[in-house]
Specification:
12 helices, alpha/beta, two-stranded parallel sheet, 331 residues, globular, 43% helix, 15 strands
């Protein structure tokens, strides 16, 4: 098939592209920049902005399926920028699919759309969206996901996958942030509770997207639905953080601050960065303080049942691959 991957040069998008190419599909990537690695793979690349309706429509021409992976992530920034990329961009992807008569759209969502700052332990997709969000990313991703699921129809089948905390070789978000803060001596455990968190190795997340695309039709069990995607291996959050640090040859984080203090610091930082304003991301936000001091792991039995999803790369194997990749980067 001919597949369009928005954000094909990004972390997850690149993994999806590689799996599609490996099985013989034709792939086109839509990103703001050109990526030499994709060129070496023989991937057709189209440069453009998600908010550019005409460019997005042109990129989708002749495709059978769209993997909409691109989004504005992060913990800080202007709401207008998040809305433009995540909501307006998704509206444009949907419009392009309709105009080009594309029958399938696999959307990359986020579990953060249902995270209210309290422990989430083994919950399934029945969790509701929130009435209030403390960060622009989950708020705009929730709006975008609702647009995608509501669009499921005989002319366009849609599904949303919610991979949880993606990591692995090539990571440009989670792993680099942890390592950078540890090297700067700014990484602290928040609280002492052994909160369980489930993550997902990048190739497992990518495989779930292909499984969804292959099973997706309007009247299939997955049409118009969302699915949590993880490794199915909940472990204490700080055990996972320390395992990543170990893969980078760094000592474990042991210093701790109370969750209430972290939340207060996050609230203060948000005010300072908003009103001064200061450059870059604040070192802490309210959303991050809650995320790092609570349990959040999800029941993935629906993905196993409906998608045939089975995580092939374990956390232990993934950490070995991450260690090798980090070592090669240092060499």
């Amino acid at each position: 098939m001919k597949a369009l991957v928005t954000g094909g040069g990004g972390f997850l998008g690149n993994a999806i592209v590689r799996l599609l190419m490996a099985r013989g599909d034709d792939v086109r990537s839509f990103s703001r920049s050109e990526y030499p690695e994709l060129a070496q793979l023989g991937v057709e690349q189209v440069q453009g902005d998600l908010a550019d309706t005409e460019r997005m429509t042109t990129a989708a021409a002749g495709c059978d399926v769209v993997f909409h992976v691109a989004a504005k992530a992060g913990i800080w920034g202007d709401h207008a920028d998040y809305h433009r990329a995540n909501v307006t961009g998704t509206e444009n992807v949907l419009a392009a699919c309709r105009k080009q008569a594309i029958k399938r759209l696999v959307y990359t969502g986020s579990p953060s759309v249902v995270f209210d700052g309290r422990d989430v332990e083994g919950s399934d997709e029945s969790l509701p969206y929130l009435e209030h969000y403390e960060a622009h990313y989950p708020q705009t991703k929730a709006l975008a996901e609702q647009l995608v699921l509501a669009a499921n129809s005989p002319s366009l089948a849609t599904v949303s996958l919610r991979p949880h905390l993606i990591w692995g070789p090539g990571d440009n978000q989670l792993v680099p942030r942890i390592i950078a803060r540890a090297k700067a001596g700014k990484l602290r455990r928040i609280g002492n509770r052994p909160c369980l968190v489930d993550t997902v190795y990048v190739d497992n997340a990518a495989q779930a997207h292909l499984l969804a695309a292959d099973r997706l039709t309007y009247d299939s069990p997955i049409g118009g639905k969302s699915y949590f995607i993880s490794n199915g291996q909940p472990i204490p959050l700080w055990e996972m953080v320390n395992a990543i640090l170990d893969a980078a040859g760094l000592p474990p984080v042991t210093r701790t601050i109370p969750p209430q203090a972290a939340y207060a610091i996050g609230a203060l930082c948000e005010q300072l960065w908003k009103f001064l304003p200061l450059k870059g991301e604040p070192p802490m936000t309210r959303f991050v303080a809650k995320e790092l001091s609570t349990a959040h792991w999800f029941d993935i039995s629906a993905a196993r049942r409906d998608l045939g999803y089975q995580p092939e790369i374990s956390i232990a194997e993934g950490l070995k691959r991450l260690k090798t990749w980090l070592s090669e980067r240092e060499a």
